[in-house]
Amino acid sequence: MSSPFDSNKPIFLQVRELIEDQIVNDQLKEGDQAPSTNQLVSFYKINHATVSKGITQLVDEGILFKKRGIGMFVAEGAKKTLVNQRKKSFVDNYVVGLVQEAKKLGISQEEIIELIKNAKGSDT
């Protein structure tokens, strides 16, 4: 069986992103119990320390919180925090480069908007 993880990215980051995706997609809601480290280790057949590193980052950032003896839970405001982080990342990783390249090519703001609206697979 092949691994569901991308070999080009550290697995702890992928575990973290898996949980983040579940929160952003409303599979895990604020107050819901998150999968335990042991569940993730068992399901994905990966090292406990690797899973713990990803989970610890989410706890440190206030996305998850621990209830001693019970488990990890999704913190209040976690989805909003993650969506805001991802929007900023989207702008930094995609929009800034798009605007810079459009400027080099002499594409106006209006043309960019029209290109986006007409892009294949666009829902707008």
TrEMBL record:
Residues 9-77 form the HTH gntR-type domain. The keyword Transmembrane does not apply. Transmembrane segments: none annotated. PROSITE patterns: HTH_GNTR (PS50949). GO terms for molecular function: DNA binding; DNA-binding transcription factor activity. Coiled coil: none annotated. SUPFAM superfamilies: Winged helix' DNA-binding domain (SSF46785). Keywords: DNA-binding, Transcription, Transcription regulation. CDD domains: WHTH_GntR. SMART domains: HTH_GNTR. InterPro entries: Tscrpt_reg_HTH_GntR (IPR000524), WH-like_DNA-bd_sf (IPR036388), WH_DNA-bd_sf (IPR036390). The keyword DNA-binding applies. This is HTH-type transcriptional repressor YtrA. It comes from Planococcus massiliensis.
